[in-house]
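Hey all, sorry for the wall of text incoming. These are the two entities for the joint prediction.
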Amino acid sequence: KNEVEQSPQNLTAQEGEFITINCSYSVGISALHWLQQHPGGGIVSLFMLSSGKKKHGRLIATINIQEKHSSLHITASHPRDSAVYICAVSPPYGGATNKLIFGTGTLLAVQP
Amino acid sequence: EAGVAQSPRYKIIEKRQSVAFWCNPISGHATLYWYQQILGQGPKLLIQFQNNGVVDDSQLPKDRFSAERLKGVDSTLKIQPAKLEDSAVYLCASTKWGRTSATETQYFGPGTRLLVL
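and here's what came out:
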């Protein structure tokens, strides 16, 4: 079982729909990251959060530390949101390593 | 501020050939990461540098992969000889401080897409 699990693996939505992508993790963390990867390959960091909720434009990320769960929401989705969304976690600060543990990603396709 | 630069963007080689990738991190960033991302999977850390020293290379296949960051700035990753299973996107990322600080955002380059035939 992967330490970071995402669901769904694939998601197709119609333009304008509200989208939710989920991430669950089984290890202790200092922070959780949501990343966006477009077909060209480059990755952009969307959010880094350790508690509560963050909002940037139409994107909202929430985290529940007790339940070890995070969600990424996209409101009023648009075809340009089509990408792979990756959840990753940072290990607790002060440990042997600070390398990220990645989920396998959620492929989102928003159709016009 | 310029982002993380990588080259080449694409490379096609035959198995048993050699290939090298280059990465220039964001200016002033102490920590540099090389990741391998196989299609359909999340990135896997190959090696992490703090300045010009190696912090973590536990998942680097050292019989064929090598990496260096001689002056603590840019870095090269080499595969020699390449195998079919090395086909992947190779991503470089950097952070300002690295393991000596609290959690930071990693800044990724555009990646190099390698196809081994």
